Protein backbone atom coordinates (compact mmCIF):
# COMPACT_ATOMS: atom_id res chain seq x y z
CA UNK A 1 0.00 0.00 0.00
CA UNK A 2 1.34 3.41 -0.95
CA UNK A 3 1.98 5.94 1.79
CA UNK A 4 -0.23 8.44 -0.07
CA UNK A 5 -3.24 6.19 0.59
CA UNK A 6 -2.96 6.87 4.33
CA UNK A 7 -4.66 9.84 5.92
CA UNK A 8 -2.58 12.64 7.41
CA UNK A 9 -3.24 11.20 10.86
CA UNK A 10 -2.05 7.77 9.72
CA UNK A 11 1.08 9.15 8.05
CA UNK A 12 2.05 11.18 11.12
CA UNK A 13 1.39 8.22 13.43
CA UNK A 14 3.37 5.88 11.15
CA UNK A 15 6.29 8.29 10.82
CA UNK A 16 6.34 8.98 14.56
CA UNK A 17 6.14 5.28 15.39
CA UNK A 18 8.98 4.38 13.01
CA UNK A 19 11.14 7.26 14.26
CA UNK A 20 10.55 6.49 17.95
CA UNK A 21 10.98 2.74 17.38
CA UNK A 22 14.28 3.34 15.58
CA UNK A 23 15.51 5.61 18.35
CA UNK A 24 14.50 3.02 20.97
CA UNK A 25 16.35 0.29 19.09
CA UNK A 26 19.48 2.43 18.83
CA UNK A 27 19.22 3.37 22.51
CA UNK A 28 18.68 -0.27 23.53
CA UNK A 29 21.67 -1.38 21.45
CA UNK A 30 23.93 1.26 22.98
CA UNK A 31 22.64 0.40 26.45
CA UNK A 32 23.28 -3.32 25.93
CA UNK A 33 26.81 -2.56 24.75
CA UNK A 34 27.40 -0.44 27.84
CA UNK A 35 25.96 -3.10 30.18
CA UNK A 36 27.97 -5.82 28.43
CA UNK A 37 31.17 -3.84 28.80
CA UNK A 38 30.59 -3.13 32.50
CA UNK A 39 29.59 -6.75 33.21
CA UNK A 40 32.63 -8.02 31.31
CA UNK A 41 34.91 -5.77 33.38
CA UNK A 42 33.34 -7.05 36.60
CA UNK A 43 33.65 -10.64 35.41
CA UNK A 44 37.31 -10.08 34.53
CA UNK A 45 37.91 -8.78 38.05
CA UNK A 46 36.28 -11.92 39.50
CA UNK A 47 38.40 -14.17 37.29
CA UNK A 48 41.49 -12.21 38.34
CA UNK A 49 40.52 -12.65 42.01
CA UNK A 50 40.29 -16.41 41.51
CA UNK A 51 43.78 -16.44 39.94
CA UNK A 52 45.19 -14.32 42.76
CA UNK A 53 43.80 -16.81 45.33
CA UNK A 54 45.47 -19.69 43.49
CA UNK A 55 48.70 -17.67 43.26
CA UNK A 56 48.60 -17.36 47.05
CA UNK A 57 48.63 -21.17 47.36
CA UNK A 58 51.50 -21.43 44.85
CA UNK A 59 53.54 -18.85 46.70
CA UNK A 60 53.08 -20.70 50.03
CA UNK A 61 53.94 -24.06 48.46
CA UNK A 62 50.51 -25.47 49.27
CA UNK A 63 49.68 -26.40 45.68
CA UNK A 64 47.64 -29.61 45.29
CA UNK A 65 46.08 -31.24 42.25
CA UNK A 66 43.23 -31.06 41.69
CA UNK A 67 43.07 -27.58 43.10
CA UNK A 68 41.07 -27.30 46.31
CA UNK A 69 37.47 -26.09 46.01
CA UNK A 70 36.87 -22.34 46.06
CA UNK A 71 33.89 -20.59 47.53
CA UNK A 72 30.76 -21.00 45.42
CA UNK A 73 30.73 -17.47 44.01
CA UNK A 74 34.30 -17.78 42.73
CA UNK A 75 34.23 -21.22 41.10
CA UNK A 76 36.13 -20.81 37.82
CA UNK A 77 38.30 -23.06 35.59
CA UNK A 78 41.94 -22.71 36.75
CA UNK A 79 45.27 -24.13 35.56
CA UNK A 80 48.74 -23.78 37.13
CA UNK A 81 51.76 -23.96 34.79
CA UNK A 82 55.30 -24.44 36.20
CA UNK A 83 58.40 -22.68 34.87
CA UNK A 84 58.91 -25.59 32.41
CA UNK A 85 55.52 -24.98 30.81
CA UNK A 86 53.85 -28.07 32.26
CA UNK A 87 50.36 -28.06 33.77
CA UNK A 88 50.97 -29.20 37.32
CA UNK A 89 47.55 -28.46 38.79
CA UNK A 90 44.04 -27.69 37.57
CA UNK A 91 40.45 -27.69 38.70
CA UNK A 92 38.49 -30.90 38.25
CA UNK A 93 36.84 -29.79 34.98
CA UNK A 94 40.29 -29.28 33.36
CA UNK A 95 42.07 -32.43 34.55
CA UNK A 96 44.24 -33.96 31.80
CA UNK A 97 43.37 -31.07 29.46
CA UNK A 98 45.94 -29.05 27.51
CA UNK A 99 46.66 -25.43 28.26
CA UNK A 100 43.55 -23.28 28.10
CA UNK A 101 45.56 -20.42 26.56
CA UNK A 102 48.98 -19.83 25.01
CA UNK A 103 49.61 -16.22 25.98
CA UNK A 104 51.49 -14.93 29.00
CA UNK A 105 51.95 -11.52 30.62
CA UNK A 106 54.73 -9.46 29.09
CA UNK A 107 57.34 -8.02 31.39
CA UNK A 108 57.07 -5.89 33.44
CA UNK A 109 53.33 -6.59 33.61
CA UNK A 110 52.30 -9.45 35.85
CA UNK A 111 48.84 -10.01 34.34
CA UNK A 112 47.18 -10.25 30.92
CA UNK A 113 43.69 -11.20 29.70
CA UNK A 114 42.09 -12.34 26.45
CA UNK A 115 38.98 -14.06 25.07
CA UNK A 116 39.68 -17.68 24.09
CA UNK A 117 37.31 -19.87 22.05
CA UNK A 118 37.98 -23.64 21.77
CA UNK A 119 36.50 -26.92 22.95
CA UNK A 120 38.93 -27.68 25.78
CA UNK A 121 36.59 -26.09 28.28
CA UNK A 122 33.62 -27.93 29.68
CA UNK A 123 31.29 -25.81 27.49
CA UNK A 124 31.77 -24.85 23.85
CA UNK A 125 31.31 -21.13 24.43
CA UNK A 126 34.11 -18.59 24.52
CA UNK A 127 35.85 -17.79 27.83
CA UNK A 128 37.57 -14.79 29.33
CA UNK A 129 41.03 -16.01 30.35
CA UNK A 130 43.33 -14.14 32.74
CA UNK A 131 47.02 -15.11 32.95
CA UNK A 132 49.06 -14.09 36.06
CA UNK A 133 52.73 -14.56 36.88
CA UNK A 134 53.88 -15.62 40.33
CA UNK A 135 57.55 -16.19 41.26
CA UNK A 136 58.60 -19.30 43.18
CA UNK A 137 61.90 -20.73 42.05
CA UNK A 138 61.02 -19.37 38.62
CA UNK A 139 58.02 -17.81 36.89
CA UNK A 140 54.86 -19.77 37.33
CA UNK A 141 51.77 -18.91 35.29
CA UNK A 142 48.24 -19.22 36.59
CA UNK A 143 45.36 -19.26 34.12
CA UNK A 144 41.83 -18.60 35.37
CA UNK A 145 38.76 -18.35 33.17
CA UNK A 146 35.02 -17.75 33.07
CA UNK A 147 32.42 -18.07 30.26
CA UNK A 148 32.19 -14.85 28.27
CA UNK A 149 28.92 -12.98 28.58
CA UNK A 150 26.56 -12.89 25.57
CA UNK A 151 25.74 -9.56 23.90
CA UNK A 152 22.43 -9.21 25.72
CA UNK A 153 24.21 -9.99 29.06
CA UNK A 154 21.10 -11.30 30.76
CA UNK A 155 17.90 -12.49 29.00
CA UNK A 156 15.79 -10.46 31.40
CA UNK A 157 17.49 -7.21 30.35
CA UNK A 158 16.92 -7.91 26.66
CA UNK A 159 13.29 -8.87 27.29
CA UNK A 160 12.65 -5.66 29.24
CA UNK A 161 14.19 -3.53 26.48
CA UNK A 162 12.22 -5.29 23.73
CA UNK A 163 8.91 -5.01 25.57
CA UNK A 164 9.67 -1.41 26.53
CA UNK A 165 10.49 -0.49 22.91
CA UNK A 166 7.25 -1.99 21.62
CA UNK A 167 5.07 -0.42 24.32
CA UNK A 168 6.75 2.99 24.09
CA UNK A 169 6.51 3.04 20.27
CA UNK A 170 2.82 2.14 20.30
CA UNK A 171 2.09 4.70 23.02
CA UNK A 172 3.91 7.51 21.19
CA UNK A 173 2.28 6.64 17.83
CA UNK A 174 -1.16 6.59 19.47
CA UNK A 175 -0.43 9.90 21.22
CA UNK A 176 0.75 11.46 17.95
CA UNK A 177 -2.37 10.31 16.15
CA UNK A 178 -4.59 11.62 18.92
CA UNK A 179 -2.76 14.97 18.95
CA UNK A 180 -3.01 15.34 15.17
CA UNK A 181 -6.69 14.38 15.27
CA UNK A 182 -7.35 17.06 17.89
CA UNK A 183 -5.30 19.62 15.98
CA UNK A 184 -7.06 18.89 12.68
CA UNK A 185 -10.56 19.06 14.14
CA UNK A 186 -10.78 22.81 13.29
CA UNK A 187 -9.56 21.97 9.76
CA UNK A 188 -12.43 19.50 9.39
CA UNK A 189 -14.81 22.24 10.52
CA UNK A 190 -13.30 24.66 8.00
CA UNK A 191 -13.58 22.08 5.22
CA UNK A 192 -17.20 21.30 6.10
CA UNK A 193 -18.05 25.01 6.12
CA UNK A 194 -16.32 25.54 2.77
CA UNK A 195 -18.32 22.66 1.29
CA UNK A 196 -21.49 24.25 2.65
CA UNK A 197 -20.53 27.66 1.31
CA UNK A 198 -19.85 26.15 -2.10
CA UNK A 199 -23.29 24.60 -2.20
CA UNK A 200 -25.27 27.55 -0.81
CA UNK A 201 -23.94 31.11 -0.77
CA UNK A 202 -20.77 33.12 -0.31
CA UNK A 203 -22.09 35.12 2.64
CA UNK A 204 -21.00 32.52 5.18
CA UNK A 205 -17.50 32.34 6.66
CA UNK A 206 -15.39 29.51 8.06
CA UNK A 207 -14.96 29.27 11.85
CA UNK A 208 -11.77 30.86 13.21
CA UNK A 209 -10.19 29.01 16.18
CA UNK A 210 -9.23 30.98 19.26
CA UNK A 211 -5.63 29.72 19.37
CA UNK A 212 -3.56 31.92 17.06
CA UNK A 213 -1.64 29.12 15.37
CA UNK A 214 -1.25 27.95 11.77
CA UNK A 215 -4.89 26.84 11.57
CA UNK A 216 -5.98 30.27 12.83
CA UNK A 217 -4.01 31.89 10.02
CA UNK A 218 -5.46 29.38 7.54
CA UNK A 219 -9.01 30.27 8.61
CA UNK A 220 -8.25 34.00 8.36
CA UNK A 221 -6.80 33.54 4.87
CA UNK A 222 -9.80 31.44 3.82
CA UNK A 223 -12.21 34.14 5.03
CA UNK A 224 -10.21 36.86 3.30
CA UNK A 225 -10.27 34.82 0.10
CA UNK A 226 -14.03 34.42 0.45
CA UNK A 227 -14.34 38.19 0.97
CA UNK A 228 -12.39 38.86 -2.20
CA UNK A 229 -14.34 36.21 -4.10
CA UNK A 230 -17.64 37.67 -2.94
CA UNK A 231 -16.49 41.15 -3.98
CA UNK A 232 -15.41 39.87 -7.39
CA UNK A 233 -18.68 38.05 -7.95
CA UNK A 234 -20.62 41.10 -6.84
CA UNK A 235 -18.60 43.22 -9.28
CA UNK A 236 -19.28 40.71 -12.02
CA UNK A 237 -23.01 40.71 -11.28
CA UNK A 238 -23.06 44.50 -11.22
CA UNK A 239 -20.98 44.64 -14.38
CA UNK A 240 -23.30 42.20 -16.19
CA UNK A 241 -26.30 44.22 -15.06
CA UNK A 242 -24.75 47.52 -16.15
CA UNK A 243 -23.50 46.07 -19.44
CA UNK A 244 -26.92 44.62 -20.18
CA UNK A 245 -28.51 47.98 -19.44
CA UNK A 246 -26.00 49.84 -21.65
CA UNK A 247 -26.38 47.38 -24.51
CA UNK A 248 -30.16 47.28 -24.25
CA UNK A 249 -30.54 51.01 -24.98
CA UNK A 250 -28.95 51.08 -28.46
CA UNK A 251 -30.41 47.67 -29.32
CA UNK A 252 -33.89 48.91 -28.34
CA UNK A 253 -33.40 52.03 -30.43
CA UNK A 254 -32.31 49.99 -33.46
CA UNK A 255 -35.23 47.58 -33.02
CA UNK A 256 -37.77 50.41 -32.77
CA UNK A 257 -36.43 52.09 -35.91
CA UNK A 258 -36.37 48.83 -37.84
CA UNK A 259 -39.92 47.94 -36.76
CA UNK A 260 -41.16 51.36 -37.84
CA UNK A 261 -39.51 50.85 -41.21
CA UNK A 262 -41.08 47.41 -41.60
CA UNK A 263 -44.57 48.77 -40.85
CA UNK A 264 -44.38 51.11 -43.85
CA UNK A 265 -41.59 49.90 -46.12
CA UNK A 266 -42.83 52.00 -49.06
CA UNK A 267 -42.29 55.17 -47.00
CA UNK A 268 -38.76 54.22 -45.80
CA UNK A 269 -35.89 56.44 -46.80
CA UNK A 270 -32.84 54.18 -46.61
CA UNK A 271 -30.47 57.10 -46.16
CA UNK A 272 -32.55 58.49 -43.31
CA UNK A 273 -32.87 55.05 -41.73
CA UNK A 274 -29.15 54.45 -41.98
CA UNK A 275 -28.35 57.80 -40.40
CA UNK A 276 -30.81 57.09 -37.62
CA UNK A 277 -29.46 53.60 -36.88
CA UNK A 278 -25.78 54.42 -37.27
CA UNK A 279 -25.31 56.24 -33.87
CA UNK A 280 -26.72 53.24 -32.02
CA UNK A 281 -24.47 50.87 -33.97
CA UNK A 282 -21.46 53.08 -33.22
CA UNK A 283 -22.39 53.02 -29.55
CA UNK A 284 -22.59 49.21 -29.59
CA UNK A 285 -19.24 49.07 -31.34
CA UNK A 286 -17.69 51.42 -28.78
CA UNK A 287 -19.01 49.36 -25.86
CA UNK A 288 -17.77 46.10 -27.40
CA UNK A 289 -14.36 47.59 -28.20
CA UNK A 290 -13.93 48.97 -24.68
CA UNK A 291 -15.00 45.70 -23.07
CA UNK A 292 -12.47 43.85 -25.22
CA UNK A 293 -9.76 46.32 -24.17
CA UNK A 294 -10.57 45.78 -20.50
CA UNK A 295 -10.43 42.02 -20.96
CA UNK A 296 -7.00 42.23 -22.58
CA UNK A 297 -5.73 44.54 -19.84
CA UNK A 298 -6.89 42.15 -17.15
CA UNK A 299 -5.26 39.21 -18.95
CA UNK A 300 -1.76 40.36 -18.07
CA UNK A 301 0.90 43.11 -18.07
CA UNK A 302 1.95 44.99 -21.22
CA UNK A 303 3.75 42.77 -23.71
CA UNK A 304 5.91 45.21 -25.69
CA UNK A 305 8.02 47.21 -23.26
CA UNK A 306 10.10 50.13 -24.53
CA UNK A 307 11.49 53.42 -23.27
CA UNK A 308 8.96 56.20 -23.93
CA UNK A 309 9.35 59.96 -23.53
CA UNK A 310 6.00 61.01 -22.09
CA UNK A 311 6.27 64.58 -23.42
CA UNK A 312 6.75 63.32 -26.98
CA UNK A 313 3.96 60.77 -26.57
CA UNK A 314 1.50 63.38 -25.27
CA UNK A 315 2.40 65.84 -28.02
CA UNK A 316 1.92 63.17 -30.71
CA UNK A 317 -1.42 61.99 -29.30
CA UNK A 318 -2.75 65.55 -29.03
CA UNK A 319 -1.59 66.31 -32.55
CA UNK A 320 -3.60 63.41 -33.96
CA UNK A 321 -6.58 64.02 -31.68
CA UNK A 322 -9.54 66.09 -32.77
CA UNK A 323 -9.96 68.75 -30.10
CA UNK A 324 -13.28 70.42 -29.42
CA UNK A 325 -11.76 73.17 -27.30
CA UNK A 326 -8.51 74.77 -26.28
CA UNK A 327 -5.74 72.40 -25.11
CA UNK A 328 -2.74 73.89 -23.26
CA UNK A 329 0.43 71.77 -23.23
CA UNK A 330 3.04 72.12 -20.49
CA UNK A 331 5.48 69.35 -21.34
CA UNK A 332 8.89 68.64 -19.84
CA UNK A 333 11.12 66.67 -22.19
CA UNK A 334 13.22 63.78 -20.93
CA UNK A 335 10.55 62.31 -18.63
CA UNK A 336 11.00 58.67 -19.70
CA UNK A 337 9.04 55.61 -18.62
CA UNK A 338 9.10 51.95 -19.62
CA UNK A 339 5.89 50.65 -21.13
CA UNK A 340 3.61 49.83 -24.04
CA UNK A 341 3.35 52.86 -26.35
CA UNK A 342 -0.10 52.03 -27.70
CA UNK A 343 -1.61 51.46 -24.27
CA UNK A 344 -0.08 54.60 -22.77
CA UNK A 345 -1.31 56.53 -25.81
CA UNK A 346 -4.81 55.20 -25.16
CA UNK A 347 -4.49 56.29 -21.54
CA UNK A 348 -3.69 59.87 -22.59
CA UNK A 349 -6.49 59.91 -25.19
CA UNK A 350 -9.09 58.65 -22.71
CA UNK A 351 -8.18 61.31 -20.15
CA UNK A 352 -8.12 64.12 -22.72
CA UNK A 353 -11.47 63.03 -24.23
CA UNK A 354 -13.01 62.87 -20.76
CA UNK A 355 -11.67 66.34 -19.91
CA UNK A 356 -12.91 67.85 -23.19
CA UNK A 357 -16.32 66.31 -22.66
CA UNK A 358 -16.86 68.29 -19.43
CA UNK A 359 -14.54 71.29 -19.84
CA UNK A 360 -16.04 74.75 -20.21
CA UNK A 361 -13.33 76.02 -22.53
CA UNK A 362 -9.80 74.78 -21.72
CA UNK A 363 -7.97 71.54 -21.00
CA UNK A 364 -4.42 71.68 -19.63
CA UNK A 365 -2.03 68.73 -20.02
CA UNK A 366 1.17 68.83 -17.94
CA UNK A 367 4.13 66.42 -17.86
CA UNK A 368 6.91 66.62 -15.25
CA UNK A 369 9.04 64.44 -12.99
CA UNK A 370 9.32 64.23 -9.20
CA UNK A 371 12.09 62.72 -7.03
CA UNK A 372 12.09 61.61 -3.41
CA UNK A 373 8.73 59.82 -3.46
CA UNK A 374 8.92 56.78 -1.12
CA UNK A 375 6.48 54.86 -3.35
CA UNK A 376 8.77 55.33 -6.38
CA UNK A 377 12.43 55.05 -5.25
CA UNK A 378 13.75 55.72 -8.77
CA UNK A 379 11.60 58.81 -9.29
CA UNK A 380 8.10 59.33 -10.63
CA UNK A 381 6.79 60.63 -13.95
CA UNK A 382 3.54 62.55 -13.63
CA UNK A 383 0.94 63.45 -16.23
CA UNK A 384 -1.78 65.89 -15.20
CA UNK A 385 -4.98 66.44 -17.21
CA UNK A 386 -6.96 69.40 -15.85
CA UNK A 387 -10.23 70.80 -17.16
CA UNK A 388 -12.16 73.93 -16.17
CA UNK A 389 -15.51 72.17 -15.96
CA UNK A 390 -17.82 71.54 -12.96
CA UNK A 391 -15.38 69.13 -11.32
CA UNK A 392 -16.06 65.98 -9.30
CA UNK A 393 -17.07 65.89 -5.64
CA UNK A 394 -14.55 64.29 -3.27
CA UNK A 395 -16.93 61.48 -2.27
CA UNK A 396 -17.51 60.52 -5.91
CA UNK A 397 -13.91 60.43 -7.12
CA UNK A 398 -13.64 56.64 -6.90
CA UNK A 399 -17.09 56.07 -8.33
CA UNK A 400 -16.09 57.41 -11.75
CA UNK A 401 -13.53 54.60 -12.09
CA UNK A 402 -16.24 51.95 -11.84
CA UNK A 403 -17.41 50.44 -15.11
CA UNK A 404 -20.44 52.15 -16.67
CA UNK A 405 -20.51 54.60 -13.77
CA UNK A 406 -22.05 58.02 -14.35
CA UNK A 407 -22.47 61.02 -12.10
CA UNK A 408 -25.87 62.64 -12.27
CA UNK A 409 -24.58 66.20 -12.64
CA UNK A 410 -21.61 65.57 -14.88
CA UNK A 411 -22.29 62.63 -17.12
CA UNK A 412 -25.05 61.78 -19.53
CA UNK A 413 -25.48 59.75 -22.66
CA UNK A 414 -25.76 62.95 -24.61
CA UNK A 415 -22.13 63.66 -23.65
CA UNK A 416 -21.14 60.62 -25.67
CA UNK A 417 -19.43 58.47 -23.01
CA UNK A 418 -20.20 54.88 -22.18
CA UNK A 419 -18.58 54.82 -18.73
CA UNK A 420 -15.55 52.69 -19.65
CA UNK A 421 -12.90 55.23 -20.59
CA UNK A 422 -11.74 56.03 -17.06
CA UNK A 423 -11.74 52.38 -15.85
CA UNK A 424 -9.58 51.51 -18.89
CA UNK A 425 -7.23 54.42 -18.15
CA UNK A 426 -6.77 53.34 -14.53
CA UNK A 427 -6.22 49.72 -15.59
CA UNK A 428 -3.50 50.81 -18.02
CA UNK A 429 -1.77 52.91 -15.35
CA UNK A 430 -1.83 50.07 -12.82
CA UNK A 431 -0.56 47.55 -15.39
CA UNK A 432 2.51 49.80 -15.78
CA UNK A 433 3.15 49.88 -12.02
CA UNK A 434 1.57 53.32 -11.57
CA UNK A 435 -1.59 54.99 -10.34
CA UNK A 436 -4.41 57.17 -11.65
CA UNK A 437 -6.20 59.37 -9.13
CA UNK A 438 -8.33 62.50 -8.97
CA UNK A 439 -6.75 65.24 -6.86
CA UNK A 440 -7.93 68.58 -5.52
CA UNK A 441 -8.00 71.60 -7.81
CA UNK A 442 -9.37 75.14 -7.67
CA UNK A 443 -11.71 74.43 -10.57
CA UNK A 444 -12.65 71.43 -12.66
CA UNK A 445 -11.42 67.84 -12.43
CA UNK A 446 -7.71 67.16 -12.02
CA UNK A 447 -6.62 63.67 -13.11
CA UNK A 448 -3.02 62.73 -12.20
CA UNK A 449 -1.15 59.72 -13.65
CA UNK A 450 1.98 58.64 -11.74
CA UNK A 451 4.37 56.13 -13.36
CA UNK A 452 7.85 54.91 -12.31
CA UNK A 453 10.66 56.69 -14.12
CA UNK A 454 12.98 54.76 -16.42
CA UNK A 455 16.62 55.70 -16.01
UniProtKB/TrEMBL annotation:
It catalyses: ATP + protein L-histidine = ADP + protein N-phospho-L-histidine. It is found in: Cell membrane. InterPro entries: HAMP_dom, HATPase_C_sf, HATPase_dom, His_kinase_dom, HisK_dim/P_dom, HisK_dim/P_sf, Sig_transdc_His_kin-like_C, TCS_sensor_his_kinase. It is an enzyme of class 2 (transferase). The keyword Transmembrane helix applies. Residues 181-234 form the HAMP domain. Pfam families: HAMP, HATPase_c, HisKA. Keywords: Kinase, Membrane, Phosphoprotein, Transferase, Transmembrane, Transmembrane helix, Two-component regulatory system. Its EC number is 2.7.13.3. It comes from the Bacteria. Residues 242-455 form the Histidine kinase domain. The chain crosses the membrane at residues 12-35, 151-173. One of its GO terms (molecular function) is kinase activity. PROSITE patterns: HAMP, HIS_KIN. This is histidine kinase. It comes from Nonomuraea marmarensis.
Amino acid sequence: MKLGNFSLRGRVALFTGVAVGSLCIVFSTVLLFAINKMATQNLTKEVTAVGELTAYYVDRGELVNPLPPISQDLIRPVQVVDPLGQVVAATKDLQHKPLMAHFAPKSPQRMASAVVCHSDFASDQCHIVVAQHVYRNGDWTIYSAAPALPFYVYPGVAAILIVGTVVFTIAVAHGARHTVTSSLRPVDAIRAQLDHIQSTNLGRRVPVPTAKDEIYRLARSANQTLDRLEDVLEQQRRFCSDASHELRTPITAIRAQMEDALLAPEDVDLARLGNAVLPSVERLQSIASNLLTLTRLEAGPPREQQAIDLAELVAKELEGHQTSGKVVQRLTLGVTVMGDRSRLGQLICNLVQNAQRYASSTVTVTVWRTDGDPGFPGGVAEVEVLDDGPGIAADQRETVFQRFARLDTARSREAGGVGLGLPIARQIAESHGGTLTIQDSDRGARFVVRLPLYS
